[in-house]
Amino acid sequence: MASLSLVTIVVADYDEAIAFFVELLGFELAEDSPSTTNDGRPKRWVVVRPPKAETGILLAKADGADQLAAVGRQTGGRVGFFLEVDDFDATYERMVAGDVRFVGEPRMESYGRVVVFQDLVGNRWDLLGA
């Protein structure tokens, strides 16, 4: 058996990223622990995940020019992340009230309602629900 436990999103600031995912998207802060880089500098190990989800997101603060260049462009401008919710309308309204950037309007597809949004650094996500 195998499972996917974490995916990484490179961010500019830990606390801004935590606020976005927890307050606007309704994720849980699963871990926020001190850690160190490979060369001994301090960093944090920050994991968020949707309630009841097994897979989490490691929020990794950009370290160096290459990583800074990847912030917001981890999937080259494509939708790279998919957030499926039980209550599309409530989630969408909470996100609109929080000034989340949307790309277009919600639409109905064969698999349900969908709208593209950008996270705090510009990565594109699909918000999916009934």
Structural description of this entry:
The protein contains three helices and eight strands; from the N terminus they run E-H-E-E-E-H-E-H-E-E-E. It has a single domain, classed as 2,3-Dihydroxybiphenyl 1,2-Dioxygenase, domain 1. The chain is α/β, with parallel strands linked by helices and 130 residues long. A four-stranded mixed beta sheet has the order 1-4-3-2. A four-stranded mixed beta sheet has the order 5-8-7-6, with helices on one face. A hairpin with a 2-residue loop joins strand 6 and strand 7. Helix content is 21%, strand content 45%.
Main traits of this protein?
3 helices, 2,3-Dihydroxybiphenyl 1,2-Dioxygenase, domain 1, 130 residues, alpha/beta, 4-stranded mixed beta sheet
CATH first level: Alpha Beta
Instruction: Report the count of strand segments.
Output: 8
Fourth-level CATH superfamily: 2,3-Dihydroxybiphenyl 1,2-Dioxygenase, domain 1
Strand order of the largest sheet: 1-4-3-2
- Report the helical percentage: 10-25%
Helix-strand string: EHEEEHEHEEE
Instruction: Compute the CA-based radius of gyration.
Output: 15 Å
Low-pLDDT ranges? none
Biggest sheet character: 4 strands, mixed
- The tally of helices reads 3
The separation of the N and C termini measures: 31 Å
The computed structural class is alpha/beta
Indicate how many domains the architecture comprises: 1
- Do you know the CATH architecture? Roll
Beta-strand proportion: 35-45%
